[in-house]
Amino acid sequence: MSVSVVPTRAKIVIIGGGVGGTSVAYHLAELGEKDVILLDRNELTSGSTFHSAGLVGQLRADPTLTLMNMHSVDLYRKLQTTDTPPSWRECGSIKLASTPERMQEIRRQIGWAKTFGLDLKEISPQEAQNLFPLIDLDGVVGACYMASDGQVDPSQLAMALAAGARKNGVQIFTHTRVLEIKTINGRVSSVVTDKGEIECEIVVNCGGMYAPQIGRMVDVRIPIVPMSHQYLITDNFMDADAPFLPSLRDPDNLIYFRQEVSGLLMGGYERNSKAWSADYKNIDDIPADFNNTLLPDDWDRFYDIAEASQKRVPKMAEIGIKNFINGPEGFTPDNEFCLGETSVGGFYVAAGFCAHGIAGAGGIGKVVAEWIVAGEPTMDLWHMDIKRFGASYESPDFTLQRITENYEQYYDIHYPGEERTSARPKFTSPVYEWHKAHGAVFGEKASWERVNYYQSNIGNQALRPQGWLGKHWSSAVQVEHHSTRTAAGLFDESSFAKARITGSRAGEFLNYVCANNVVKGVGKTVYTQALNSKAGIESDYTVTQTDDNEFMIVTGTAFAVHDFGWLEKIRREFNFDNVEITNITRDLTCFGVMGPNSRAILQSLTAADLNHSAFPFMSSQEITLAGIKVRATRITYVGELGWEIYSSVADGLALWEKIMEAGEDLGLTACGYRAIESLRLEKGYRAWAGEINTETNPYEAGLGFAVSLKKEEFHGRTAAVAAKEIQTRKLVAITFDDITSVPFGSEPIRINNEIVGRIKSGGQGYTIGKAIAYAYLPIENSDPGTQVDVELFGTWVSGAIHKEPLFDPNNDRIRA
Question: What is the mean pLDDT of residues 128-145?
Answer without folding.
Answer: 98
